[in-house]
């Protein structure tokens, strides 16, 4: 089951009763004024103990907490599942974020002033920030939600940004009007400017080695999004310095590896010739995983006029089984502003990565490896640049749970406990489809680094 929870949790998700647990499983979050998910009040005839037992889909048999522990010892059920509700909420938030981006995409492609403060790209990024903050606070309780992101309330609160604020408020309200399609109740009235500013204000966190916070990349890959190519929305939950779940929304991700060689306009033409349906799709997806599951999942974006029903035809994905560098595909970054392409490409050649590289933008590299479309990704920042945690947290846990590895260039795990940046990063980031490939890359980095100019 794609949510990795007990069947009972799945039933709760499908009927959208993900509020605070109580004996009757009444939908909605008790701490919020409005309920979070669409209300379908369904009362269970059983009063369950605090430790929720499982209901098997195959035989619908009920297990008591004591029997449950015995079955765990026999390997018949998984360990207690955590973060199920958070994962469901996060996936819905990213689905709605991708809806915003798709809605604005044609506008920002035709807008030549992509760096203008009022550009559609800026509006999209701030709108995604608002929507994600609103959904997390609504469904998990505002007291439990803190967000680290590149966009904050200061961007909108300046008096000379009133035009930008109005555009964001308009976009957010248009998106929230569609919330019932995603199984989330829309606000009783449209949000005003002060409410939008208040919602985004929870995005002013600076990170912490302890406690819980969310890391959001609202529009990763602006270069790709500006020209109608690849971009992503990344959302992860970090607890006591460790990533516990991650969600990547990739609106233009091609579902066939050979399509990476073509511009999005060609993919659009092919998609029109073979329109996607609920079970098959050509581009656009949500990829997600949570700590300890040893599984990662992919589901399509919500199609027009469709309603979201968990798990939305999700399928399990895993990294490639290729363990020979001569047969591996290397993710070649497109952006050149913050990384050294010369060193990365030279290193790829030195270790025998001779296949045609896969040219992808930013976080899309994590998606490509998790889906088995590529095997190796390396990024070595230019002097003075520090990697941001929101650009890597979601992708790292997805690759790891899909069977791959993500470390720094020394082989150390990425450290998300030092604030906004990956402060203790040793030289760069290496991601691969498995241990054998990873060790060879790490050894090659050590051998080549001294002679580099980085």
Automatic annotation (TrEMBL):
<dbReference type="GO" id="GO:0008441">
    <property type="term" value="F:3'(2'),5'-bisphosphate nucleotidase activity"/>
</dbReference>
<keyword id="KW-0460">Magnesium</keyword>
<dbReference type="GO" id="GO:0046854">
    <property type="term" value="P:phosphatidylinositol phosphate biosynthetic process"/>
</dbReference>
<dbReference type="InterPro" id="IPR006239">
    <property type="entry name" value="DPNP"/>
</dbReference>
<dbReference type="InterPro" id="IPR051090">
    <property type="entry name" value="Inositol_monoP_superfamily"/>
</dbReference>
<feature type="binding site">
    <location>
        <position position="220"/>
    </location>
    <ligand>
        <name>Mg(2+) 2</name>
    </ligand>
</feature>
<dbReference type="GO" id="GO:0000103">
    <property type="term" value="P:sulfate assimilation"/>
</dbReference>
<dbReference type="GO" id="GO:0046872">
    <property type="term" value="F:metal ion binding"/>
</dbReference>
<feature type="binding site">
    <location>
        <position position="391"/>
    </location>
    <ligand>
        <name>Mg(2+) 1</name>
    </ligand>
</feature>
<dbReference type="InterPro" id="IPR000760">
    <property type="entry name" value="Inositol_monophosphatase-like"/>
</dbReference>
<keyword id="KW-0479">Metal-binding</keyword>
<feature type="binding site">
    <location>
        <position position="150"/>
    </location>
    <ligand>
        <name>Mg(2+) 1</name>
    </ligand>
</feature>
<comment type="similarity">
    <text>Belongs to the inositol monophosphatase superfamily.</text>
</comment>
<protein>
    <recommendedName>
        <fullName>3'(2'),5'-bisphosphate nucleotidase</fullName>
        <ecNumber>3.1.3.7</ecNumber>
    </recommendedName>
</protein>
<keyword id="KW-0378">Hydrolase</keyword>
<dbReference type="Pfam" id="PF00459">
    <property type="entry name" value="Inositol_P"/>
</dbReference>
<dbReference type="InterPro" id="IPR020550">
    <property type="entry name" value="Inositol_monophosphatase_CS"/>
</dbReference>
<feature type="binding site">
    <location>
        <position position="219"/>
    </location>
    <ligand>
        <name>Mg(2+) 1</name>
    </ligand>
</feature>
């Amino acid at each position: 089951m794609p949510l990795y929870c007990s069947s009972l949790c799945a039933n709760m998700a499908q009927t959208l009763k993900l509020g605070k647990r109580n004996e009757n499983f009444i939908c909605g979050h008790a701490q919020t004024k409005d309920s979070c998910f669409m209300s379908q009040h369904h009362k269970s005839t059983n009063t369950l103990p605090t430790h929720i037992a499982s209901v098997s889909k195959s035989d619908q048999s009920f297990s008591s907490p004591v029997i449950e522990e015995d079955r765990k010892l026999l390997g018949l059920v998984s360990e207690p599942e955590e973060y199920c509700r958070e994962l469901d909420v996060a996936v819905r938030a990213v689905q709605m974020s991708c809806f915003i981006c798709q809605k604005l995409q044609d506008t920002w492609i035709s807008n030549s002033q992509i760096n203008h403060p009022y550009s559609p790209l800026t509006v999209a990024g701030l709108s995604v920030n608002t929507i994600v903050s609103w959904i997390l606070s609504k469904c998990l309780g505002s007291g439990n939600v803190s967000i680290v992101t590149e966009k904050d309330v200061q961007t909108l609160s300046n008096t000379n940004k009133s035009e930008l604020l109005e555009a964001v408020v308009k976009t957010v309200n248009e998106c929230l009007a569609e919330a019932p399609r995603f199984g989330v109740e829309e606000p009783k009235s449209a949000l005003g400017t002060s409410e939008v500013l208040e919602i985004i204000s929870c995005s002013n966190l600076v990170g912490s080695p302890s406690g819980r916070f969310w890391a959001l990349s609202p529009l990763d890959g602006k270069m790709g999004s500006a020209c109608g190519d690849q971009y992503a929305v990344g959302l992860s939950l970090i607890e006591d310095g460790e990533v516990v779940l991650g969600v990547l929304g990739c609106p233009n991700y091609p579902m066939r590896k050979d399509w990476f060689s073509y511009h999005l306009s060609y993919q659009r033409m092919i998609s029109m010739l073979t329109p996607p349906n609920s079970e098959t799709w050509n581009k656009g997806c949500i990829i997600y995983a949570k700590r300890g599951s040893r599984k990662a999942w992919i589901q399509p974006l919500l199609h027009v006029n469709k309603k979201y029903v968990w798990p939305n035809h999700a399928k399990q994905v895993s990294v490639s089984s290729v363990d020979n560098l001569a047969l591996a595909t290397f993710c070649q970054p497109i952006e050149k502003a913050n990384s050294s392409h010369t060193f990365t490409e030279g290193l790829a050649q030195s270790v025998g990565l001779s296949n045609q590289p896969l040219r992808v933008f930013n976080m899309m590299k994590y998606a490509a490896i998790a889906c088995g479309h590529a095997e190796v990704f390396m990024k070595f920042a230019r002097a003075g640049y520090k990697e941001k945690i929101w650009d890597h947290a979601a992708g790292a846990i997805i690759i790891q749970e899909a069977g791959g590895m993500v470390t720094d260039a020394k082989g150390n795990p990425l450290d998300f406990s030092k604030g906004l940046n990956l402060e203790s990063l040793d030289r760069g980031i290496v991601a691969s489809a498995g241990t054998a490939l990873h060790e060879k890359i790490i050894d090659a980095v050590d051998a080549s680094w001294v002679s580099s100019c980085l």
